[in-house]
Amino acid sequence: MLYWKTTRGCSDKNGAEIIPLEPDPGNTGGGMVKRCVKVKTSPTFPPKDVNIKEGLLLSTQLEMAKAGIVTPEMRIVAMEEGLSPESVCCLVAEGKAVIPKNVNHDIKHVKAIGKGLSTKVNANLGTSDECSNLELEGKKLQAAVAAGTDSIMDLSTGGDLDAIRSFFLERSPVMVGTVPIYSLATQMLRVGKPLKQLDADDLFSSIEKQCSQGIDYMTVHCGITRQSVAFLESSERIMPCVSRGGSIILHWMRERNEENPLYEYFDDLLAIAKRFDVTLSLGDGFRPGSIADAIDAPQISELMILADLARKARNFGVQVMIEGPGHVPIEHIKSHVELEKRLSDETPFYVLGPLPTDIAAGYDHITGAVGGAIAAAAGADFLCDVTPAEHLGLPDDTDVYLGVIASRIAAHIGDLAKGVNGAREKDKRMSIARARLDWKAVIEEALDPELVRVKSHLAEDREACTMCGKLCAVKLSRQVWESN
Q1: Cα 110 to Cα 290: distance, rounded to the nearest angstrom
Q2: Lowest mean pLDDT, pick from 18-32, 53-67, 177-191, 451-465
Q3: Does 23 have pLDDT greater than 70?
Q4: In this predicted structure, which of 13-27, 48-62, 125-139, 163-177 has the lowest mean pLDDT?
Q5: What is the pLDDT of residue 248?
Q6: Residue 267, exposed/middle/buried by CB under 10 A (0-12, 13-18, 19+)?
C-alpha cells in the first residue's frame, strides 16, 4: 500500500519532486508556509480504487492532483500543451484547470480546459422535437471533428434520447457533455405531464443515469435561486430568460414556489458527479439574450452564486467550470471575464460567443468569433461554437463545420494574446511558408487545409497566386533582396 507523507516547506532531503498545493491548513501562524507532497509520476499509477493518503479513496482528477499524483490523463495533456506534467497537476489541484473525463468513458483525445492552456472549442449537436435524424447527427459529428472541435455537447430533445446519447458516446473521439434536465423535461412533455410536476428525485436519477453512461461533463443550472429570481423579477429585461434549461427551472420554481432542487440539494449532485468524475459546468440560466440586457443584476447575482458553488465543488473533490454569456456589448466582454475569474478564484470559464451585436442573424458564427476572440484574450478558457443557424433553427453539418472553424479562429487569436505555449510559433511557420511561396507548407499550416487547397489558384509561373501574378510583392521584394 502506498501512502503519501505530507511535509512542511518545499524541499525534500532525498531530492524528490514536490508540488505546493495550498496555504498551511493548520493556521500555525507561520505565514504563507506551503503544504507540499511528494509527486508520484509513474504512467501506470494510480490504479482505480486504491486507498491513498491517510486512507482516503481518491476517485477524481482533482483529488489525485491535490494529493500530488500525476495521472495518465495529466501526462497526455502535458504533452499536448507543451508543459510539464507537474505544472498540469498543479493547475488541476488549484481548480484552475479541469480534465473532463468520466471514469466510464474512453476518450481518444483527452483535453484539459483552464488557465495557461490552449483555449478549447465545443460544438453543440443534437436533435429537436421538430427534427430528429440520427444520420444527420452522425454527419454533424463528423463535421465537428473534421473542423477540429475539442468537445461536443448532446442537446437533444427529440427522438430516442438514450440511443442518441449512446450514439455520441460510442462515436465521439472527444469529450461529451449534456444538459440532463433536457432529457427529463422532454420525457414529461411526451406523456402530457406538465413541467411543474417535475420531481427532484427523478431529476437526480436522470443525472445519475447519464453519468453512468459515460458523460464527461454536464451543464446544471444551479444559480437560478430565490435570490437571483428576485433580481430578475425587478429587472427590465427585454428577454427575461433565454436559457432553455434555465427557463425550465424558472418555470418549475414559479409554479411550485420552491427553491431550485439543483441548488437546494447541491451536495447530492456533488456526490453523483464525484463517483464518476464528471465535471460540473455551472450553467448561466440568466445569461443575457440581448446586449441591452447584459451586465445586469440577475446575471451578476447568478455569477456570484455560481462562484460560491464552484468553491464548494472543489472542496468536495469535484471538477467544476462556470458558464458565461451570451449577448454582451464589446466594451464589457473583457471586464466580465475578469470579474468571473476574480469572483471564482480563476475557475475555468466556458462562454457562448459572446455575441457583441444582435442583428447578425445568419452570420452569428462571425459575431461569435469576434466576441470569442476578445473573451479568450481576456482569459476565457472554453468557447462554445456559434453557428450560422443560431437564432434561426437546428444547424446542419455545414453550419456546425463553419461554427467550429470560426470558434477555433477566435480561440487561437485569444491564445496569441495570452501567450499560450506554441501559439505564436504556429503563425511564424505560416509566415515563413508565405515568404518562401511554399504553397504546400501554407496548406499544411492552415487552420482549414482543405479549404486552402481548393482556394489556392496559382499563376502561370506556378509560384505566385492569380491575385498578383507577375506583380507578386513577395516575389519582387525577394528578387531585390537577393540581388543585393
Answers
A1: 35
A2: 18-32
A3: no
A4: 13-27
A5: 96
A6: exposed
Number of residues that make up the chain: 484
Alpha-carbon span 117 to 419, nearest angstrom: 10
**Residues with Cβ within 8 Å of residue 183, at least 6 apart in sequence:** 156, 161, 165, 206, 210
In whole angstroms, give the CA distance from residue 6 to residue 21.
11
Grid coordinates representing 207? 443525472
Place of cell 463553419: 402
Half-sphere exposure of 273 (CA within 13 A, CB side): 31
SS3 of residue 394 by DSSP: coil
The least confident of 26-35, 139-148, 398-407 is 26-35
> Does an H or E element contain 472, and which?
none
β-pair partners for 97: 114
Pairing label, strands 120-125, 151-154: parallel
Alpha-carbon Rg for the chain in angstroms: 24
- The one-letter amino acid code at 388 reads P
Integer CA distances (angstroms), 14 to 36, 52, 177, 283, in order? 14, 21, 43, 46
Q: Give the Cα-Cα-Cα angle 126, 320, 207 (nearest 5 degrees).
A: 50
User: For residue 351, what are the contacts with CB-CB under 8 A and spacing of at least 6?
Assistant: 323, 324, 325, 326, 337, 372, 375, 380, 382, 383, 384
Q: What is the pLDDT of residue 460?
A: 74
| DSSP letters spanning 400-442 | HHHHHHHHHHHHHHHHHHHT-TTHHHHHHHHHHHHHTT-HHHH
Asked if the model's pLDDT at residue 477 lies above 80, the reply is: yes
Report whether 211 contacts 273 (CB < 8 A). Answer: yes
Write the pLDDT tens digit of every residue in 314-338: 999 999 999 999 999 999 999 999 9
Residue 217 makes CB contacts below 8 A (sequence gap 6+) with: 98, 100, 151, 175, 177, 278, 279, 280, 281, 321
State the residue for C-alpha cell 430533445. Answer: 157
Burial code (b: 16+ CB inside 10 Å, e: under 16) for 24-53 equals eeeeeeeeebebbbbbbbeeeebeeeeebb
What single DSSP character describes residue 293? Answer: G
Set of cell numbers at residue 386: 456559434
Q: Give dist(CA 337, CA 377) in Å, integer.
A: 10
> How many whole angstroms separate alpha carbon 478 and alpha carbon 472?
10
Coil, helix or strand at residue 385: coil
Report field, pTM of the whole predicted structure over 0.85: yes
Query: Within 10 Å of residue 113's Cβ, how many Cβ atoms?
Result: 27
Q: If you average pLDDT over residues 263-279, what whole number do you get?
A: 97
End-to-end CA separation in angstroms for the chain: 72
